[in-house]
TrEMBL record, chain A:
Name the record gives this protein: Fumarate reductase iron-sulfur subunit
Source organism of the structure: Gracilimonas mengyeensis
Record-annotated 2Fe-2S ferredoxin-type domain positions: 3-107
Chain segments annotated as transmembrane: none
Enzyme Commission number(s): 1.3.5.1
Automatic annotation (TrEMBL), chain B:
Keywords, in A-Z order: Membrane, Transmembrane, Transmembrane helix
GO cellular component assignments: membrane
Gene3D superfamilies, sorted: Fumarate reductase/succinate dehydrogenase, transmembrane subunit (1.20.1300.10)
The keyword Transmembrane helix is annotated on this UniProt entry: yes
Species for this entry: Gracilimonas mengyeensis
Descriptive protein name: Succinate dehydrogenase subunit C
Amino acid sequence: MSKEMTIHLKYWKQNGPNAKGYFEEYTLDSVNEHMSFLEMLDVLNEELMLAGKEPVEFDYDCREGICGSCNLVINGQAHGPKERVAACQLHMRNYSDGDHITIEPPRAAAFPVIKDLVVDRNAFDRIIEAGGYVSVKTGSAPEANAIPIEKEDADTAFDYATCIGCGACVAACPNASASLFTGAKIAHLNKLPQGEVERKNRVVAMVDQMKEEGFGDCSNYAECEAVCPVGISISAIAEMRRDYMKAVMSGD
Amino acid sequence: MPSLIKALNSQVGRKIMTGITGIGLMLFLIGHLAGNFSIFGEAEAFNKYTHTLESLGPLLYLIEAGLAFFFLYHAILGISIWRQRKKARPEGYDTYRTKGGPSHQTLASKSMIYTGIIILVFLVLHIWHFKFGPSYTTMVDGTEMRDLRRLVIEEFTNPLVAFGYIGVLALAILHLAHGAWSAFTSLGMKHGETSKKVQFGAYIFAIVLMLGFIFIPLYIFLTGGEGSLIAY
Ligand code: HEM
Ligand code: FES
């Protein structure tokens, strides 16, 4: 037998980037405890549509915690209350009958609201475009083991590469800083020999772009690490700072 | 590569400089406390100490200018970082709460700007009180020098001054409890076992250092300036 619950929702409605937003409330009477958070929102939208009302827009794609599309701020916490879980993988069994849940979009000037809970995260793409790539010779694929990489470096690079770019770090940061995202994207390339050639330009260009986009500074609150659905550590930010200092010190 | 100016203005550069100036100011505070403790013990040791400082002449001006620069640079960065957060998030959350775990969001980290500004205001009053306060003189070993000990005792027997100082110094514990950890993180310390030890060390450092400073006005006030630790 699965439990059914009553959940009181309060969610953000906003018609466009410049429209004035507001909260709307709705009570769902039969939320199944095995539903994911997004399935609960599907049920909400179904009820809204059947009642002739406009559904609430929210972002998602994979619904299995790997694409980084979902990015809801749930009761003031990015991706909700569970550690290392994306909103799409959060289940309603984490809530109890009669709970009140407030759902907001990530709030940052660099992430303008497109509609309701959907925000434009192109700022992240522009940070990647600034330097989050490696240049390789075209042609047939190189032999996979041609470049030996220390196990430890490969592991750290992989840890940073698990960033799914959801933007929870920005959402949760009291300063709306993009340092964890940018740090992870820099570090996963700078840790590898393939990233070596462009490492200095990469760190400088990406750090500049993050400021250009209007994100805040990092005050070392480490809240980003706490909300990251894949558990990326603020050591990524330390790596970024070290690489930046090295790039500036080395002159060229 | 970016010019130095551009690098210092980058979001990484700003934090590195907040950290460096912060560490510089903490080192200054250690020296300042060590010097202040000469008010206890041997008579006239305090006046001799301040007199030695004052007779450094141009070197003292250089040190003072350096200190003022560190203070101002640190304060400007701190205020600027705080202003940027309003720009970066013009519309705040209705509900916001920390997720805990590895987060360093604490009363101390959240109040850096407030404790910082209080320290800044305090600093102006502090310099005005002591550096530019009444200039009593005394003779020590045949040399006429400023009797700062008398001024210090006079000030701290006034409850308003004594408890004003104690209050500000207590708030400074918060600033340093987060600051002494954060500065190293700004300079590239990673999150891990070392970082945890540094955070623990920062709490101890902040408490011990500030209790040291607090002891002076507290002792002078409680003993009415006539405690046995202060020799005449
Ligand atoms: C004796 C005086 C002071 C000492 C020893 C001190 C020490 C520190 C240290 C060590 C940090 C950490 C640096 C970092 O995060 O990298 C810090 C941060 C900070 N300080 Fe101070 N500070 C002092 C005075 C001030 C003053 C006068 C202000 C004026 C506004 C101020 C505002 C701040 C702010 C806002 C931060 C946080 C910066 C951020 O959010 O990233 N501090 N301080
Ligand atoms: S929808 Fe893909 S990570 Fe949540």
